[in-house]
Design a protein that fits this description.
Blueprint lengths: L8 H8 L7 H10 L13 H7 L16 E5 L5 H8 L3 E6 L2 H16 L9 H4 L7 E5 L8 H6 L5 E6 L11 H11 E11 L18 H7 L20 E7 L13 E7 L2
Parallel strand pairs: 1-2, 1-4, 2-3, 4-5
Antiparallel strand pairs: 5-7, 6-7
C-alpha cells in the first residue's frame, strides 16, 4: 500500500475514491500497468517476518517427513516475502490481481532464489543452508476460488501458514468480513495466520488505502465482527469469532512506514 512517509499517499487514496468493491482489483492492476508500484513497494521482505520465522516459535509450522509446510501470501506484490519464506523451507504461493505484478514477481523469484540477498535472513549462516521450498506466483482474486484450482493440482488443499501485510489495509472496510471468512476457508485446521498489523497509527475514520486497522484484526478474527468501527473496541474474552490469538508482540524490527506501531499477531482456528 502507499508509503505514509513518501509524500504520495493522497495519490493512492484519490485513485480509489468512490470505487465500489467490484472495481478494487481493477484499480490495483491499473496502478501496476502505469508503473506506480513504487507507491507501496517496500523493496525488501519484512524484517519482522524474517525474525519471526527464524525464532523457532513453537506455534509455527515446520517440515515433517520431508514435506515443506505450505504458505500463502495474498497481495504479494513483487514477491519479497514469498521468496524469503521459500528460502526458509516453505512451499509458497504468492497471489496478486495484477498480471504485470505477477510477471515481475516471477522474475524476481528466479533471480533471488538463485542468488539470495542478505536481507532475506537475520542469521544467514544458520538459515541459508536450509533446503529451500518452492515458489509459485498466481494471478487471481483472493475472494474468487478459481485460483485454488492450480493449488489443488499441486496437491495443496489448504495452507499451514498465511501471511497478511498491507493486504487487509488495502481493502474497503465493507470487504473485511469476507477477508476473515476466506482466511478461515484457506487455512488448514492446524495452520496459522500471521498478521503484521499495519497501519495502527492511522485514524480509523481516515480515508484509505491504506485504511487504519487498530483493533480491526481482533474484531474480525476473535470477535467475528465486520471490522467496521470508528474507535477500537475492548478485547473481551471469551470471543465469538472463528480464530484464537496465540501470539501478540511488537517486533524488534519492522518497516519504518509503521512509525514504531506495527504488531505481529498469530492466529489459529478454534477447534
Amino acid at each position: 500500500m502507499s508509503n505514509p512517509d513518501s509524500g504520495t499517499p493522497q495519490r493512492v487514496i484519490s485513485h480509489f475514491t468512490n470505487r465500489p468493491p467490484e472495481q478494487q482489483s481493477r484499480g490495483w492492476s491499473e496502478l501496476w500497468d502505469l508503473d506506480q508500484s513504487h507507491l507501496w513497494d517496500r523493496a525488501k521482505p519484512s524484517p519482522a517476518l524474517v525474525d519471526l520465522v527464524e525464532s523457532s516459535l513453537e506455534v509455527l509450522p515446520i517440515s515433517r517427513q520431508g514435506r515443506h509446510p505450505g504458505a500463502l501470501v495474498p497481495g504479494c506484490g513483487k514477491g519479497y516475502d514469498v521468496v524469503m519464506l521459500a528460502l526458509h523451507g516453505f512451499d509458497v504461493y504468492g497471489l496478486d490481481v495484477s498480471a504485470k505484478g505477477v510477471e515481475i514477481a516471477r522474475q524476481y523469484a528466479v533471480t533471488e532464489l538463485a542468488e539470495p540477498k542478505e536481507y532475506n535472513f537475520g542469521e544467514k549462516e544458520k538459515f541459508s543452508a536450509a533446503q529451500p521450498g518452492t515458489v509459485k506466483i498466481l494471478v487471481g482474486d483472493f475472494f474468487n476460488r478459481q485460483w485454488e484450482v492450480s493449488c489443488a493440482q499441486d496437491g495443496c488443499e489448504g495452507f499451514d501458514l498465511i501471511y497478511d501485510y498491507t493486504f487487509l489495509c488495502a481493502l474497503l472496510p465493507e470487504m473485511r468480513k469476507d477477508w476473515g471468512r476466506r482466511m478461515s476457508e484457506l487455512l488448514l485446521p492446524t495452520g496459522v495466520l500471521v498478521c503484521l498489523e499495519f497501519p495502527l497509527y492511522k485514524d480509523l475514520k481516515a480515508l484509505g488505502p491504506p485504511w487504519g486497522l487498530r483493533g480491526v484484526y481482533w474484531d474480525i478474527l476473535a470477535q467475528g465482527g465486520d471490522g467496521i468501527m470508528d474507535e477500537p473496541g475492548e478485547e473481551i474474552e471469551p470471543a465469538g469469532g472463528s480464530f484464537e490469538r496465540v501470539f501478540y508482540s511488537q517486533p524488534p524490527r519492522s518497516y519504518e512506514n509503521g512509525k514504531g506501531t506495527d504488531m505481529i499477531s498469530i492466529w489459529i482456528l478454534k477447534q
